[in-house]
Design brief:
The protein is mainly α. About 75% of the residues lie in helices and about 0% in strands.
Length: about 500
């Protein structure tokens, strides 16, 4: 009953004309971002952070959240029509979606992707409403040791789940933590690593950092690429799936929704993992696995549902624990902090209008996306024809204006440029940016909780393993580190045995 009353409270907030408008703007921009290859929700949210200064907090969160799950919708359009995923999470959709387009069934593929995403989004929102409050109540038992251990575990999981080199991810996370120490020491009151630059007294600006890492670097990387794609079709017909399509898709949609939501709660690139896991599961459960990859609609329905459900699940640790599950949520956490909001166990109680308003707006946003995506397919097709020689300079100008308008600081423009070059080099040398941005966001909070824990316990570090919840988090972190080291140790041992065998011969 309490949940129902809270949802009514959220509906009152979400249905306010201004919030409806920002919800619409968010999902529309999210879809556009998802459609355009080379851009992503992280870069889009980062670019809009300066604008959020002039928008009320609840409208800001509603709009930026809309960009996130809206991009999950839009990514399927280019995957199906162009065989070029607009989002990393839509890569798997290319396998069957594009084949369906080649067979003249682009309409049903796009339709089932939209309906599947809507169903998954609806189930995900129900999951948030039911699970977030009890999870927040559980987190009320957290103190500084628990928070530090949990944040450390989040970074370790991000590194563990990454597809790149563990050593590289560890290096980027460490660098992010070091960047987080720049500025005023909150406990001692002294300046650190500012080198006499007054603008650095408050630390590295989050907005210049993310706009550089994701906005500028995207431009630098994409200008190197020669993007030459051909649309399979410009006339998309029969957007409504047939009864047969629904029979083949409904179970994958439901399974993908549950799987995606569960994976979304865990730190890491949840939407990407969820789509691959859903595709593998559907192929294994199918009576005709040979059809996958040939234009089978279940290969579109399952992953697209898992994709959207994962974006809903990722909101739970953000609201209840203040822990971002991935780089997109980390940037969203930055938006909270800009408005003086600190997500965590007390957030739902302290700001019920923001939490429940956002939850209800997510359902409204999903409904808007369902209405928008299908009729606007011809428009998205035209958008795909925009030359990148026009698009990218406009994004660059927007970045410069956005950063400078914050504090009218040339230093912040320099920081954005430096982070842009850094992001470009990281992409070129295959360094993941998620550990860096997550460590940059969590670093100051981790340091504060670490030092508070030691101060309260007279420097005794054993407090992190004597308290049950903290010990559990530390144990999980240690287990993940050890489990990742075992394969490399085995490889070294086998190579050593081979060398010893060669020497004996």
């Amino acid at each position: 009953m309490d949940v129902f009353n809270h949802l009514i409270q959220g509906a009152i907030v979400a249905f306010q004309p201004a919030n409806l408008l920002f919800c619409f703007i968010g999902v529309l921009m999210g879809t556009l971002v998802g459609v355009l290859p080379g851009l992503g929700p992280t870069a889009a949210i980062a670019l809009l952070l300066p604008v959020s200064f002039h928008i009320p907090p609840v409208a800001t969160i509603i709009m930026l959240s809309g960009i996130y799950y809206g991009a999950m919708y839009g990514g399927s359009t280019t995957s199906i029509l162009v065989n070029m995923p607009g989002e990393a999470a839509s890569v798997i959709t290319c396998l069957d979606g594009h084949q369906m387009a080649k067979q003249g069934r682009a309409g049903p593929a796009l339709g089932i992707a939209a309906f599947g995403s809507f169903i998954a989004g609806t189930l995900g929102i129900i999951g948030i409403a039911l699970l977030a409050p009890p999870m927040a109540r559980f987190a009320l038992a957290f103190g500084p040791p628990e928070y530090f251990s949990m944040m450390l575990m989040g970074i370790v999981i991000i590194i563990y789940m990454s597809s790149g080199s563990i050593l590289k991810d560890f290096m980027t996370a460490t660098f992010g933590l070091l960047l987080g120490t720049i500025g005023m020491d909150n406990i001692a009151g002294t300046q650190r690593l500012t080198f006499g630059v007054l603008e650095l007294a408050d630390g590295i600006g989050f907005i210049p950092a993310v706009m550089g890492l994701f906005g500028i670097s995207e431009i630098l990387v994409n200008v190197e690429r020669i993007v030459a794609t051909t649309l399979v079709t410009e006339k998309v017909k029969n957007l409504l799936p047939t009864l047969r399509d629904w029979k083949e898709s409904i179970k994958p949609i439901l399974r993908g929704s549950v799987l995606g939501f569960v994976i979304g709660v865990l730190p890491g690139p949840a939407p990407v993992i969820a789509t691959y896991a859903s595709y593998a599961m559907e192929k294994k459960l199918s009576k005709t696995p040979e059809k996958f990859g040939t234009g089978f609609i279940a290969g579109v329905a399952g992953p697209e549902s898992a994709n959207n459900a994962a974006s809903s699940g990722a909101m739970i640790p953000l609201f209840t624990l203040g822990i971002p599950a991935n780089s997109v949520i980390a940037v969203l956490l930055g938006a909270f902090m800009i408005h003086g909001l600190q997500p965590g166990p007390m957030f739902i109680t302290k700001y019920p209008e923001i939490f429940w308003g956002t939850v209800v707006s997510m359902y409204l946003g999903n409904a808007m996306l369902l209405v928008l995506n299908l009729p606007l397919i011809p428009l998205w097709v035209k958008v795909l024809k925009i030359p990148y020689s026009i698009l990218f300079p406009l994004i660059l100008i927007f970045c410069l204006i956005g950063v400078y308008s914050l504090n009218f600081s040339q230093v912040e423009i320099g920081l954005m440029t430096a982070f842009g070059v850094l992001g470009y080099l990281m992409r070129k040398f295959k360094f993941e940016m998620a550990p860096l941005i997550l460590a940059l966001v969590l670093g100051p909070m981790m340091e504060s909780n670490l030092r508070l824990s030691l101060l309260l316990n007279q420097g005794d570090a054993s407090v992190f393993v004597t308290k049950p919840i903290s010990a559990a988090f530390m144990g999980i972190s240690a287990l993940l580190i050890v489990s990742n080291m075992i394969p490399s140790i085995r490889n070294r041992r086998s190579k050593l045995k081979e060398r010893l065998g060669e020497d004996k011969v």
